[in-house]
TrEMBL record:
Pfam families the record matches: Amidase_3 (PF01520)
rRNA-binding is among the record's keywords: no
UniProt superkingdom: Bacteria
Residues covered by the MurNAc-LAA domain: 4-172
Gene3D superfamilies the UniProt entry points to: Zn-dependent exopeptidases
Presence of the UniProt keyword Ubl conjugation in the record: no
Protein name (database record): N-acetylmuramoyl-L-alanine amidase
UniProt source species: Psychrobacter namhaensis
Enzyme Commission number(s) from the entry: 3.5.1.28
Signal peptide: none
């Protein structure tokens, strides 16, 4: 069976960005679990960094990267201006095509823009991003949306299941399992 590594940003001890009572760690753990469920439904085994609300450390998530044909870690962007919007993916150039497809899927389901001039793809060294352990070890960081944007957060909460299904479909298609409906 084909394997994919799916991890959640932050950990049980690091909530990440926060908007009201919603933490980035809760969002990313939830998305990891739903995408893993959808992948299993498509016949793809998901290696994860925890079950339920468990969310392992970055150090342990990095160790899981090589267990999958592809590795994706979910995160949320945050900015002081609540109007900041969009999806982006940080990765090595080898994963540019998959990053663009993932960003397009998130953009389509949530009705948000892809960030930047390259379909949402950004290399590890772009902007404020540098020396990202997950990316340096071959994984993709998918910044789903801006948790600091109340509209994007509400859209995510309303559409997380269809979003997870679309992300799982893109991953399955990329690794050659099944076909996108």
């Amino acid at each position: 069976m084909t394997k994919v590594t799916i991890t959640a940003g932050h950990s049980n001890t690091d909530p990440g960005a926060v908007n009201s009572n919603v933490t980035e760690a809760e969002i990313t753990t939830d998305m990891r679990n739903i995408v893993a469920y959808c992948l299993k439904d498509l016949g793809v085994e998901a290696v994860t960094d925890g079950n339920g609300s468990d969310n392992d450390t970055l150090r342990n998530a990095i160790k899981l990267i090589k267990q999958g044909d592809v590795a994706i870690e979910f995160h949320c962007n945050a900015f002081h201006d609540p109007r900041a919007a969009g999806v982006e993916a940080l990765a090595q150039p080898k994963d540019k095509v998959l990053c663009r497809k993932l960003c397009e899927a998130v953009s389509d389901v949530m009705g948000i823009p892809t960030r930047g001039d390259d379909g949402g793809f950004k290399s590890e060294g772009s902007g404020q991003h540098s020396r990202l352990g997950y990316v340096r070890n071959g994984g993709i960081i998918l910044e789903l949306f801006f948790i600091s944007n109340p509209t994007e957060l509400a859209t995510y909460q309303a559409k997380k299941w269809p979003l997870a299904r679309e992300i799982a479909d893109v991953i399955a298609e990329h690794i050659g399992v099944g076909c996108k409906a």
